[in-house]
Amino acid sequence: MRNRVAIIDQGVQIDHPRLANSLISQITITESTEGIYQIGHNDSDDLTGHGTAIAGIIHGINPLAELLSIKITSSGTGVKTSLIAKAISYCTALDDIEIINLSLGVPSDDPPQDLYLACKKASENGIAVIASAYHLSSTNCYPAFFPFVFGVGTGLVTRKTQYSFIKDSAINILAKGSVQRVAWRNSSFRIASGTSYATAHFSGILSTLIENRGMSYLELEKLIERNSSNDVQNLNHFKGGNKFLVQNQSLNEIERFKKEHFSFQNKSKFVGKVALYPISEKELKTIMEQEHLCSFEIVLYLDYPKSFSGLGSDQKSKNKHRIVRRIPNESEFDSFDTIVLGYILDDDFEANLLMSIAIVAKCIEQSKNFIVWDKTTYDLIQDQIPKINPSYQGKIYFSEVSEELFTKIQGIPGLPKMASPILSVVGTSSKQGKFTTQLRVMEILTNEGYKISHVGTEPQSFLFGSDLEFPIGYKSTVDLIDSNWIIFLEKGLRCIQDINTPDLILTGIQGGVIPRDNQQQSGYILSALNYLIAVNPDYVICCINPTDTKKIINRTLQTIRTFCGAKNLFFAMTPWQTEFIKTKNGKYVVHNRLMSKDDYKKRMDQMEKKLKSPVINIMDKNNNDFILSSIQNAFTAEKEPKEYKQVTKIP
Predict the structure, then answer these.
(1) Is residue 231 annotated as a catalytic residue, yes or no?
(2) Identified catalytic residue from 16, 22, 50, 137
(3) pTM for the complete prediction?
């Protein structure tokens, strides 16, 4: 077949004896130190000999193939991935390229987006993109690992036109890459081996199989599978590993995964009308207090029959829903399709536990959806479903960051670098309204037309539209070792940016970031710091207590600046005055007292003078314009561009 194969390398010696009678043309793409690309047509030199070897192999397998040598050079040190992406895009713009041979790659867990997009577009335009695996099979290598690229490893073959296809693997092809005599620069030859040459063999073979240009990736995959041999052995298997045979995600699977886990609009579609239980818990009480900001319609508030929350049995929410302290009747059950459950198994009262179990059983029986943030509650539901309703059709949403989720997110290639600004709410201690502050900021910015993505560390964040929950407080459901937090969150934020294209990403911590003499909660402090380092905010809003000293506040801000470099926009002071009372056994108990309006205003003025920075009541709507302008002014400066990674040649 007279198919046209593009060879992206560092040149080909077109008059090499092994290329006699070949149909070969050439261009050169050069990148200057300023990032300017130039295309030339008069350079036939091979800088390394590698490109000549590749061309010789392809021509030897299919003498009728038309070869296009695309020589990539840089006036700087090394070839950048941006130059490879430019060469791929050049091929895509042509109307007669069937195959792009890339006997090179970038060993990385985080491939550049420009390379990802260039390969994706080439594949979508009906071009077979063929790339080399890394010679160490345990190393991820791109473009070979992209889901729309055919990655090639070295196999043990009995003839050079033989190859093996591996379905659902990061590396799809095994071809001849064992020791062989290859053409080299200056009309010489060399004995060589490696995945580069296996890639060239397969490109040559495929050029004899393709009959029609413009085949889709799936059509090419079927063609390749039909002509595959089962007799090819993976050479890496003989060397003590079989790392190629790992599950690979298709492009559709990757896009579906990102939407299911990092887009509120997609992952919340199952929710209609909501019931909350038990409303006396802090997390659910917040939902009731901020009901107007909730993303769902709440139709029923339920609470324990025995509760010391201070909520009266006849108390109503802002939307006039009465709080029910019993098992709902049939009409009340019919009013909702999804129930939000708090920490229902933490309560010690028998009457409360019996009511909780009865509500769970009735919801399973009627295939209601569950939103839970407690692992023990989740396990209870899973245990009861086969006993109560084996044909249960509802959905259980559990905000867990598991090792499985961590593994899957690592396999997502081609995500753009972070460009979206990140704002985090921090504080000097716990119980300062940090989550409420996030909701207020989100409300103000959304009302001004900004698109906000929220990452919540509180389990109830999902009810307010968070694109990702990372619960790190009480009964944390983050099942990752600390060192993996940064990897997961950095990738997660980029998924959020890629799927949702927000104007700003908003988040917040729980608790404080420095130890206080009366609070020995080192675990929570380390979690807060670890989280801040991972999300790496550009700016913060710091929540403070009326009793905080200047020293504590400054130490908090200095710690944040040290670990993530973020500056503070303003302070939000809680009206609750927290007092730490020391008991006879040396422990402290916390007492909270709501300040009067006059005392609150007076204390904010004193704090503002002391800190020489704005101190506001975040709930006062008269501060909306100030909050908005503070955030707008902070994020007007552009971020510096990121450097590209260097390409490693695959021998």
Answers:
(1) no
(2) 50
(3) 0.77
